[in-house]
Request: fold
Amino acid sequence: MTAYHDGRFLEIEDCCISPLDRGFLFGDGVYEVMPVWGGRPFRYQAHINRLARSLERAEIKDPYPPERWREVVDGLIERSGLPSPVIYLQVTRGVAPREHVIDDDAAPTVFAMTMPPPNDAAAGVAAITAEDTRWSRCDIKSVSLLPNVLLRRRARDYRAWEAILLRDNCVAEGAASNVFIAAGGVLATPPEGPQLLSGITRGVVIEMAAVCGVGCEQRTVTAAELAAADEIWLTSSTRGIVPVITLDGNRVGAGEPGPLWKRFSDCLADWCE
Ligand code: PDD
Reply:
């Protein structure tokens, strides 16, 4: 697997990162996951803009100008040997003695790698609902993912793929995805805010809906609406648009991927730029 660390492309096995790195000791960093389809990064600029936003909100200085980020991503795609790798980018606050607050002068650590694309989930997945146990800055794509890991482990224990997270009985997002429901031919997804990540795929689905003339409301979605939806979708860069066919053990709609999902999923690849 190809990697990149602080200015050098190398094999992941040859990558050495200090145990004093803030990412390792504190989970003090941010990341991006960007799919590549047919050699082209999907929504490259949106991902890089979100990385810059996460860095700013985490008060970590962006170590690279835009052209340097492009070189890293293009270099990884070229070296991956895969037609459609997934690119992972991570920036941490750097290497420093273990103090909660450090001098702002530590140089951020940049680490990146390619990953193989995950399995296709077009047959549909099972999901559970769970109380959202995460913090209140879920708009930052932080590498501190312990709650997300625990929530996904809980889903796995129920033989489900994703945990759909509820706050005050309303949907926030999935543990690693955004959530859409379809009811009566109209889509709804929770509005952006600190309770969820502004997903790139979520944004694309909203654009697609506008162009296709399908209603798409960004509004509060209650747990009751989720349970009664005709279709539930999970969106993420790695998987695209994934249909949920059971929720908490109950069938969603007819218990198979719905017609609206098929329509959107079939043309997602055309929305790369
Ligand atoms: N996760 N919400 C959360 C909490 C996520 O972790 C993700 C993506 C999303 C979807 O965002 P996007 O469409 O930009 O990928 C929403 C990635 C894939 C991950 O952590 O691997």
User: Anything to note?
Assistant: DSSP finds seven helices and 15 strands in the chain. The pocket of N-(5'-phosphopyridoxyl)-D-alanine is lined by residues 33, 173, 176-178, 197, 199-202, 235-238 (CB under 6 Å).
